Amino acid sequence: VNAGTQRLASMQTTSGGLAYWPNDTQPYLWGTCYASLLLAEARKGGYKIADLDQKALAGYLLRSLREDNPGLNQQAFLCRSLASFGSPQIARQSFLLDQVDRLDLAARAHLAAAWLAVGRRDKAAMSLPAGTLKLKPSARTTGGRLTSPVAQDGVLLSVLLSLNPQHPWIPKVVGRLDQSRKAGLWLSTLDDGLAVAALCQYQASFQREPGTFSGSLQSEGLEPMTFSSDASADFHFKGKKPVRLLSKGDGPLYVSVKTDGIGIAGRDDEQDNVLVVRRRWLDAEGNVLRDWTA
Question: Which of 24, 138, 166, 198 has the least C-beta neighbours within 10 A?
Answer without folding.
Answer: 166
